[in-house]
Amino acid sequence: MAMLMMKDNMNQLFADYEHPAFYDEMFEGRGKGRVHYGTMLQRLAKMGLEELQERDAMMQAEMVTQGITFTLYSHNPEESARERTIPFDILPRMITSEEWAHMNDGLKQRVKALNLFIWDIYHEQNILKAGLIPSEMVLNNPYYLQEMVGVDVPNGNYIPLSGIDIIRGQSGEFYVLEDNLRTPSGLSYVYKNRELMTNLFPELFYDHRIRSIDPGINALLSSLRSLAPDSNPDPLVVLLTPGIYNSAYYDHCFLAQEMGIELVQGSDLIVRDQTVYLKNRDGLRKVDVIYRRIDDEYLDPQVFRKDSLLGVPGLMAAYLAGNVALANAPGTGVADDKAVYAFVPDMIRYYLKEEPILSNVPTYILTRPHEREYVLSRLGEMVVKERSLSGGYGMLIGPTATEEEIKAFADKIVQHPERYIAQPTVKLSCSPSLTGGTVAPRHIDLRAFTFMGPDTYVVPGGLTRVALKEGSLVVNSSQGGGTKDTWVLA
């Protein structure tokens, strides 16, 4: 009788669930849950839809109370930016220990190769001389900084923090979709998601052995401290934020608080004799490491944008003199480039003499005439991305675009093929999400956070991002996407 009641509850919970024509993270067939979701499905069945809705309401209220927010900006000049709680889906995403071991190894391999690539292009440029990557793609890149040529950064570590976006395809395989190496955001939501879920669903945590994410904050702090000039054993580390109007300001506040470091703006710092100091009531304190969350062009008005009020005059002189460390290093954005991304497997083979563990999504370089013509003839099937943009901006998703949008992008590609890359539309995996008062499939990806320092550490699971709009493939928070807790089974 109890088993029959549980089955009825399960049928009720997923009564309107339309099993997608994509890889489903929870189900391997209609009504058949994947083995590692078995215990969770039983627990959800006991709760039922009404209790899930009640807990979801409690979750949303708690997020408002705690001010867990993200600011959305509009390209419409008549619409102002609006701050809102980042949408949170209470149905967690689970990853098996075997799947995570594969991703963990692949992420460490990828970040190591990317770091070697950044060192090489600012020093000997061997990979360019070998012809593996077109020189103009790197040396003419807007993120390639001449100021960094020949500069030896602390420990040769350009990217102590990276956020690598991973997707699962229709057959269940994992692909890297994008590398985020400049100022990757979202780490705070990993920890707040876990805190909220632990408080509201203690029984689910009791039922499962889940890898802890707690060591991650200390691992990040250790990576930052390891950059200190002269190997200072007790360095002053600060987080440089653009301020309260930045979309990720909550992220900045949370990380500074959790790591126990100072949250500062440019006006809080001053450079004297090529040394950076923090101004406070007691005078000046020498700063050793700056975890910067502002882009290169705003770092120093004496070197980059003269109108920048976000940075610190003289900061680059202090940095180039070796008196302060910047994380991530200036000039890393060239490795973020969506065209350079296509060559990361070649970097791994070249620098590490290994085969890539994680594959790329196939990518078309539109400056190549034959690839450009192929893409233009199938634009309705492609995803086209502007190389220099992120956050879901500057994209065409062919299958959901109008004829006018496709034609407009075709014109842009013909006029400026060097600005764009194209990829076949990948059928992102889906995961059940509580949305609109019911459970429905929504597309997801995973932002995995890797910290390079004395050791390389990957936060178990990372941030699963959810495309909350039905059928949408865009998961970015800046485009209205949400998040869910990610469990790596121990």
Automatic annotation (TrEMBL):
This is Circularly permuted ATP-grasp type 2 domain-containing protein. It comes from Paenibacillus glycanilyticus. PANTHER family: BLR5612 PROTEIN, SLL1039 PROTEIN. InterPro entries: ATP-dep_Glu-Cys_Ligase-2, CP_ATPgrasp_2, UCP005522. Residues 92-467 form the Circularly permuted ATP-grasp type domain.
